[in-house]
Amino acid sequence: MEGHDAALQLKLVDDCVTSWMRCGIVYIGAVDYAHSPLRRALEGLPQSLKSRWIRAVTLAQQRGLLRNGPPPWLGSFQEPPFDQLLELRRGVDVVGIGMAIAGSLGFAPHEHEQVHDASAIELCRLDCLSASSRIRKADEIREQKKFKRGEKVDTIWAELFRPFVARFSQIALVDRFCLHRLAECAPGESGIERFLGRVDACLGDSAFVSVQVLSTLAKYQSRGDVVKRLRDFVESLPNGRISGLEVQFVDERTFGPVVHYRYARFQSHHCLVLDHGIEILEGHSLKRTHPYSLTCFDDPLRTDEAALRAKAQRCIVYSKPKRDAVSAAPTSPAGPVHPRPAMVSRACLRLGG
Question: Cβ neighbours of residue 227 under 8 Å, at least 6 residues apart?
């Protein structure tokens, strides 16, 4: 962010970090942060800027938002024509570049972004990252707030769920009524089953995904019937991407006073709050309007979920045999998802997760 005064540099850093925390994953192009070009770049910053970045990196490491790769990218760019961009074309959509690199690529003074022809990646000036067309599109979806009656479930999955499912390997569903729907829907048609089926079909960064469910039983349901139905369903899925399914049964008298919202949590950071729960995935199109919001897993969500877990009865519904988990691998590279990725300085910021 050369060429700007100190106050503006700090503002631009805050903009980058905000985009990262709201909807991103940074890929550092190294085996770990300690050996990455990102760390070396941060070491040379003024203390005020370095402190801000270090706080962000620390939080990102704790919450799964800082990762090595993607191979074979080594974490930096050399000289034009930047053939290294081709190494990132699977999944990476936005690269943040400095003003000097923008000039060498022929950016006009008024331009802040271009699309790289060979890779279809958007190149955006780092000091204008918040104005990136693709980042703004991601924010629009985040702020949309509802899907209206008649919206196709396939569209909802592609825009709201798939970007997270493809990038995170640990998912928790906190949904007071999702197990009730097993008794009200035909096999395979309830929201929780539709979710698990789509997770199985979604290729991503990780070969396997583990899912936890915190929910209640209806008065006429038995724990054994619920466990059997879910286990049979997961075992029937063709791709075997779900490595584990755990249900934490919560008493209705415990759930009601503590948690009034229903959400899907990805790793320990992103929460997709769903007014009508995972029922949003039932059927082919929505029968009613479904409000939603995207937020971070901070208080009160974090405290309330801990209170539920403290009183829940834990049940392992399905666990993939270790030999399968060790030997299996993704069948093909992850394709592009939406909302899309971005590159920040010498690190890759993947939007949506």
Answer: 247, 315, 317
